[in-house]
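User: quick one, fold this
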Amino acid sequence: MCAADGGTLVWRGCGLRVIHAAEEAGFPAFYRVVWEAHVAEFSDLQAAERQRCMEAVALVERVLRERLQPTKVNLAALGNLVPHLHWHVVARFDWDSHFPAPIWAPPQRAA
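Assistant:
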């Protein structure tokens, strides 16, 4: 996440970027909000930075809801394998192979 965009760049500015994570097969509306500076945890940010980050996450969620009308939008900030602050914003649909389970759970049905 430090050396490359990590997906198709949608927007960059104000110390963060939004990417479409096309490598997440089966989840066509999988986006990430990535903090540009290398920090591992949300609490590493100053209060104003935390607010800016969450405003970006909320904006991506709102656009997905307005444009795609998903069944649900999932938000996650794990960073276990990639210790660089980023949020997953994933529009979910009742037809996806894992719904209603998390996208990282075993599939519920064939894709």
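User: anything notable?
Assistant: The longest helix spans residues 47-68.
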